[in-house]
Amino acid sequence: MSRFAAVIAGVFRRYATWLVAISWKRFILLSVLLLIIAGVLSEIPPFTWPIMETAPKVSRLHTPSGDVDITIDEQGVQIKRKRQEDPGAAASLGQEIRREIIDEIKAERESSHLVRLGDFLPQLAFLFIVVSTAIKIAYAGRATAEARATEAQKTAEAESLRRQVVEARMAAMQAQVEPHFLFNTLASIDHLIEVDPPRASRMQKNLIALLRASMPAMRESAATLGRELQVVRPYLEILKVRMEDRLQAEISVAEGLYSADFPPMMLQSLVENAIKHGLEPKPEGGALRVDAEVAHGKLVVSVADTGVGFGRAATAGTGTGLSSIRERLKLIYGPQAELRIAGNSPAGTRVTVVVPYKTA
């Protein structure tokens, strides 16, 4: 029984799928054609075989003498005598009863209502069309919902793939930057060991702190602003040793914002961009400041420098570094995040990242 039900369900699903696949114009055309075929078949044998009405009928007959009542119903023929008759009249009474029964059977046959099987074909075809219309409407909505769900899933998978590509690109860029930075730092430490051991020791400690903070962050997809600052602080201290008086750095972030969510390695990328494209090209160097605040439910993090100015810094900064940051923000937060690039006062460039304010 269960197998038969499964077969019926399979046939029904295939038929419903076919109904949804065809257009309404074709469905109407097929429906009209089905009605025409049903009407033609209703007039062709064997669909015109007559069938006698089966409803019960009761007939009462009375003999001319009125001495006997004859009843014909679904139980047969019943004869009831009203009074005793002499034996001589029995034969004539029997003949009368026989004639009356025969006449009644003939009349019954002549007056019986005849129906044809073909009369039901147009009605059955119309009912089939109505049911098919309901199935088509119901399954069309279901098919549309499934198609939208499939499209949404494909879009989500595409967005996830794009995010992975961007993260891989950022990791590759970071992998290119880190060796260069490490080699320069180690070379500086080696030089300072001979000429200024205290500075070499301070630089070495900052490098250890930088590596201890940055290595876990590079492997994670989420971080906090406090953790990002743990990477930026020793990085700036190392650069201060290398650039000496050409770099003045300041971090102005309230401790209450340390638990705020912030994309990993993004703040360090902003600081690197400011130093590389803003301060290092300037002979006398300049100042760098990191600020953070909450405004209108958003976390606003800014990196401002007094470097070569908005023109050169903005042109250089719109390369791989900032474009990758902008793309990461779009993939992670959508339209809720933005990257702003503006001039700084009195000189230099200010780059601002705005993300939704959430605490870990």
Average pLDDT level: 76
* Morphology call: rod-shaped
Uncertain regions spanning at least 5 consecutive residues: 51-56, 312-319
Fraction of residues in β-strands: 15-25%
Q: In which range does the helix fraction lie?
A: 55-70%
CATH class of the largest domain: Alpha Beta
- Give the number of DSSP strands: 12
Helix- and strand-based class?
Answer: alpha+beta
Radius of gyration from CA coordinates: 49 Å
How many structural domains?
Answer: 3
What is the string of helix and strand elements? Answer: HHEEEEHEHHEHEEHEEHHEE
**CATH-defined topology of the largest domain:** Heat Shock Protein 90
Q: Descriptors for this entry?
A:
single chain; 360 residues; alpha+beta; Heat Shock Protein 90; 3 domains; five-stranded mixed beta sheet; three-stranded antiparallel beta sheet; 59% helix
Helix and strand topology:
Elements: H1 2-21, H2 24-41, E1 50-52, E2 59-62, E3 68-73, E4 76-81, H3 89-111, E5 114-116, H4 121-195, H5 197-219, E6 223-224, H6 225-243, E7 247-252, E8 261-262, H7 266-279, E9 286-295, E10 298-305, H8 310-317, H9 320-333, E11 338-343, E12 349-356
Parallel strand pairs: 7-9
Antiparallel strand pairs: 1-5, 2-3, 3-4, 6-8, 9-10, 10-12, 11-12
Helix pairs in contact: 1-4, 2-4, 4-5, 4-9, 5-6, 6-7, 7-8
